[in-house]
């Protein structure tokens, strides 16, 4: 089984100059580190490598040859595991750059050419001092809750395909946590067995540890994991919010995106999950009931702003053409924009669940709509926008 955790103490250093490479070799020897890889190169090579393979726990990256070190390191953080501890090396010795890098969550910045004592000290504090010193600065993933305004509106179909596209096409490490312990269908969408122990973790928060939680993660591929259960229907679930909080904060350290499929009912768990989510993806139909409960769920989520956002998705449009509430009327009554409208599709969604398929790399109106939600969440500009800019520009030059 592929485990989500990176190997302990695994260290990779990317350095440009032969002199720095030699000093790094000596420094690693002096702290007696074995599980180390030293590569000639810099931040660009690191991005290429970790777009294809799992990043280590500790990373040294040279930004000397980078014109835009802050944006390159930010790009690197998108392809690395969120918890990775990064030491940047560069030729510039300026306070502004240092401050920007610290803000980005970089552990430390040291100036090249390297000095053996300084590098050794930095490596030691990366490994031994991380908890005490800068743990607060290491980046954690975004928590996204998918909630339906009604049952059956397509929440799980969207959460699973969102995660599949995000992890496969955008290379972000993601996990889908299905909180409907009895009726949840996340594992079915991937034709995987439910994970045993989720209920235990949630019911006994004091027994939670990393090993316990890692056993829950079922891999779909090397960047996507799921956690789901199939608890007996005749038992009452008594899990507590503490268990969920510990689980979510652990997952946020391991994944770029923690996608929670929240069941359609309101209890202490729903409130706690919404409280700790950065983004609420509210899935609704165009019915009056959908409208009423969309409003109630948005207020339960609380205000937007300061890193919190609501994305409203109206799904299955066109299913009941005649009696659907119009998008503009819905928006006006809800006092919130409908950010995405997805048409009813009478083939793909059922094909997905019945044959455990996803819409990854598929070209269709439906996959395009889900891709737009992914772009919205990761802040990518849709292709069509950039194409339009170029087309307009060419038109201005009368080349088109
Ligand atoms: N855009 C769509 N067009 C047509 N069918 C859809 C669409 N989106 C989802 N479906 C179908 O609707 C059904 C319900 O979807 P899903 O299980 O995702 O809903 P849910 O909101 O998670 O339900 P529950 O409340 O039971 O968890 C599924 O058969 C799914 O394939
Ligand atoms: Mg569901």
Notes on the protein architecture:
The protein has two domains: 11-137, Rossmann fold (3-Layer(aba) Sandwich), CATH 3.40.50.2300; 142-379, Rossmann fold (3-Layer(aba) Sandwich), CATH 3.40.50. It is 41% helix and 18% strand. The chain contains 16 helices and 13 strands. The chain has helices spanning 18-30, 43-52, 69-79, 95-103, 116-128, 155-168, 186-189, 198-203, 210-214, 241-254, 268-275, 288-301, 327-334, 348-355, 365-378, 383-396, and strands at residues 11-15, 36-40, 58-62, 85-90, 108-111, 142-148, 174-178, 218-221, 224-227, 257-262, 279-284, 309-317, 340-343. It is elongated. The structure holds adenosine-5'-triphosphate (ATP) and magnesium ion. Magnesium ion is lined by residues 155-156, 185, 261.
Give me the secondary-structure topology:
Elements: E1 11-15, H1 18-30, E2 36-40, H2 43-52, E3 58-62, H3 69-79, E4 85-90, H4 95-103, E5 108-111, H5 116-128, E6 142-148, H6 155-168, E7 174-178, H7 186-189, H8 198-203, H9 210-214, E8 218-221, E9 224-227, H10 241-254, E10 257-262, H11 268-275, E11 279-284, H12 288-301, E12 309-317, H13 327-334, E13 340-343, H14 348-355, H15 365-378, H16 383-396
The protein binds adenosine-5'-triphosphate and magnesium ion.
């Amino acid at each position: 089984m592929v485990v989500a955790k990176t190997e302990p103490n695994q260290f990779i250093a990317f350095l440009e100059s032969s002199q720095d490479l030699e000093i790094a070799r000596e420094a690693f020897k002096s702290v007696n580190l074995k599980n180390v890889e030293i590569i000639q190169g810099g931040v660009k090579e690191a991005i290429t490598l970790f777009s294809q393979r799992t990043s280590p726990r500790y990373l040294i990256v040279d930004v000397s040859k980078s014109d835009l070190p802050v944006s390159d390191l930010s790009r690197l953080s998108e392809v690395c595991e969120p918890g990775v501890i990064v030491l940047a090396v560069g030729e510039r010795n300026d306070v502004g750059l240092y401050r920007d890098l610290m803000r980005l969550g970089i552990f430390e910045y040291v100036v090249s050419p390297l000095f053996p004592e300084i590098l050794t000290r930095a490596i030691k504090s990366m490994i031994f001092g991380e908890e005490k010193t800068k743990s607060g600065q290491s980046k954690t993933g975004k928590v996204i809750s998918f909630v339906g305004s009604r049952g059956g509106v397509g929440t799980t179909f969207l959460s699973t395909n969102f995660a599949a596209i995000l992890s496969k096409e955008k290379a972000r490490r993601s996990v889908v946590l299905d909180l409907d312990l009895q009726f949840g269908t996340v594992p079915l969408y991937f034709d995987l067995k439910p994970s045993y122990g989720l209920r235990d973790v949630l019911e006994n928060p004091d027994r939670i540890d990393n090993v316990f939680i890692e056993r829950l993660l079922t891999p779909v591929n090397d960047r996507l994991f799921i956690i789901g259960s199939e608890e007996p229907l005749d038992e009452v679930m008594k899990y507590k919010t503490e268990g969920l909080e510990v689980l979510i904060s652990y997952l946020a350290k391991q994944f770029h995106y923690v996608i929670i499929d929240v069941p359609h009912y309101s209890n202490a768990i729903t409130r706690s999950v919404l409280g700790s989510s950065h983004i609420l993806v509210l899935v609704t139909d165009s019915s009056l009931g959908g409208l009423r409960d969309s409003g109630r769920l948005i207020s339960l989520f609380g205000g937007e702003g300061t890193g919190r956002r609501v994305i409203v998705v109206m799904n299955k449009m066109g299913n009941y053409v005649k009696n659907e509430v119009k998008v503009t009327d819905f928006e006006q009554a809800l006092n919130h924009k409908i950010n995405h409208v997805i048409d009813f599709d009478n083939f793909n969604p059922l094909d997905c669940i019945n044959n455990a398929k996803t819409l990854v790399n598929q070209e269709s109106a439906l996959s395009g709509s889900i891709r737009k939600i992914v772009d919205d969440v990761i802040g990518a500009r849709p292709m069509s926008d950039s194409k339009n800019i170029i087309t307009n520009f060419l038109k201005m030059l009368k080349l088109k």
